[in-house]
C-alpha cells in the first residue's frame, strides 16, 4: 500500500459544492477515498463534482443538509453510513461570513455565523464520533482561519467562531485520542474563493503586502494539507492548528 493512499476509506466533506470544500473533496478522491459531499442548497455544483470524482475511479454521493441544524447533521452522517458502512474522515469545511463592525452587527448576524461555523462542527463531530469510537480509528479535520488566532476588525462573529473551533479541536483531540482518532484544525489565510471574491482589488493588494509569500493562496493549497492530515502520514499528529497562509501569521 502507498504511504498516503486513502483507498476504501470514506470521507465526509461539509460545504463541498465550491471553493475550498470542492478542492478538498477532489484531493481526497485523488488519494482514493470515497466521498460524501454535503451541500446546503446547490445540488448543481455538487453534481458536477460527483462526475469529476467518479472519473477518478472512486464513489461519491451528495447529501443535502444544513449542518447548523443538529438533526440535519445526523441525517448527513446516517446517509454516509447507509451507503459506505464506515466513516474514516470528517472534514468540517462549511462556513459563512456576515461581516460588520461591532456597533453595526445585528444579533442574528452573530448567531448565524456561530451556528454554521462553530455549532455546525459540533453537530457533525457529535454524530460521527460514535462511529469512529467503535471503529477505533478516524481523522477529523476542522477548517478554522487565521483570524481565529489573531482576531479581525469587522469579523467579530467569524473570528469568535473560528477561535471556538480551535478549542473544540483541542478538546475533542484529548477526548478521542485514546481510541485512535486524531482531531486537527487547519487555519487558512487569504484564499482565492467566492468568499474572498467580494473584496476590492485594492483590499486584496493591501492584504498581499502583509503576506511574506506576496500572493493569495489557492483552495488546492488548503486541500493538500487536509489530504496529508487525513492520511497515515499524519498518524502521530493530533490537537494541532496548522496555518496555510503564506507566512501571514507566525506563532
Ligand atoms: P465558500 O463560501 O466558497 O464555500 C463555503 C461552502 O459552505 C459553500 O459551499 C456553502 O454552501 C457551504 N455552507 C455554508 N453554510 C452551510 C450550511 N449551513 N450547511 C452546509 N453547507 C454550508 O467559502 P470558502 O472560501 O471555500 O471557505 C471554506 C471554509 O474555509 C470556510 O469554513 C471558511 O470560513 C474557511 N476559510 C476560508 C478562507 C478564505 O480566504 N477563503 C480563509 C480562512 C478560512
Indicate the CATH class.
Alpha Beta
Main-sheet strand order equals 3-2-1-4-5-6-7
User: Which architecture does the CATH hierarchy give at level 2?
Assistant: 3-Layer(aba) Sandwich
Shape: globular
Give the distance, in angstroms, between the N- and C-terminal Cα atoms: 36 Å
- The radius of gyration computed from the alpha-carbon positions, rounded to a whole number of angstroms, is 17 Å
> How many strands?
7
- What portion of residues belong to β-strands? 5-15%
Low-confidence stretches: none
Bound molecules: 1,4-dihydronicotinamide adenine dinucleotide
Per DSSP, the total helix count is: 9
* Mean pLDDT value: 96
Portion of residues within helices:
40-55%
At the fold tier of CATH, the topology name is Rossmann fold
Succession of helices and strands: EHEHEHEHEHHEHHHE
User: What's the number of domains?
Assistant: 1
Sheet with the most strands?
7 strands, parallel
In terms of structural class, how would the helical and strand content be classed?
A: alpha/beta
Q: Let me know the CATH homologous superfamily.
A: NAD(P)-binding Rossmann-like Domain
Descriptive notes:
The chain is an alpha/beta fold and 251 residues long. It has a single domain, classed as Rossmann fold (3-Layer(aba) Sandwich). The chain has helices at residues 19-30, 43-54, 70-84, 107-135, 147-150, 156-176, 194-197, 201-209, 219-230; strands at 10-13, 34-39, 60-64, 89-92, 138-143, 181-188, 241-244. It has a seven-stranded parallel beta sheet, with helices on both faces. The longest helix has 29 residues, at 107-135. The protein is globular and about 45 Å long. The termini are far apart. The model has no long low-confidence stretch (mean pLDDT 96). The site of 1,4-dihydronicotinamide adenine dinucleotide has 27 residues, from helix 1, helix 4 and helix 7. The active site is at 158 (proton acceptor).
Amino acid at each position: 500500500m502507498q504511504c498516503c493512499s486513502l483507498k476504501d476509506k470514506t470521507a465526509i466533506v461539509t460545504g463541498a459544492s465550491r471553493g475550498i470544500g470542492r478542492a478538498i473533496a477532489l484531493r481526497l478522491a485523488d488519494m482514493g477515498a470515497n466521498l460524501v459531499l454535503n451541500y446546503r442548497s446547490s445540488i448543481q455544483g455538487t453534481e458536477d463534482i460527483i462526475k469529476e470524482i467518479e472519473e477518478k475511479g472512486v464513489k461519491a454521493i451528495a447529501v443535502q443538509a444544513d449542518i447548523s441544524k443538529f438533526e440535519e447533521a445526523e441525517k448527513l452522517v446516517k446517509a454516509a453510513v447507509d451507503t459506505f458502512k464506515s466513516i474514516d474522515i470528517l472534514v468540517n469545511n462549511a462556513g459563512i461570513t456576515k461581516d460588520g463592525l461591532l456597533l453595526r452587527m445585528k444579533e442574528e448576524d452573530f448567531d448565524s455565523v456561530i451556528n454554521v461555523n462553530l455549532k455546525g462542527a459540533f453537530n457533525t463531530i457529535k454524530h460521527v464520533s460514535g462511529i469512529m469510537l467503535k471503529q477505533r480509528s478516524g481523522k477529523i479535520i476542522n477548517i478554522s482561519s487565521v483570524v481565529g488566532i489573531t482576531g479581525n476588525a469587522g469579523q467579530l462573529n467569524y473570528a469568535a467562531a473560528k477561535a471556538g473551533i480551535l478549542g473544540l479541536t483541542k478538546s475533542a483531540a484529548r477526548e478521542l485520542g485514546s481510541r485512535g482518532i486524531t482531531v486537527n484544525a487547519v487555519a487558512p489565510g487569504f484564499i482565492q474563493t467566492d468568499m474572498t471574491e467580494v473584496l476590492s482589488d485594492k483590499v486584496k493588494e493591501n492584504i498581499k503586502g502583509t503576506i511574506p509569500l506576496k500572493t493569495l493562496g489557492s483552495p488546492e493549497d488548503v486541500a493538500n494539507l487536509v489530504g496529508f492530515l487525513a492520511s497515515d502520514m499524519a498518524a502521530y499528529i493530533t490537537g494541532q492548528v496548522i496555518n496555510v497562509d503564506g507566512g501571514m501569521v507566525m506563532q
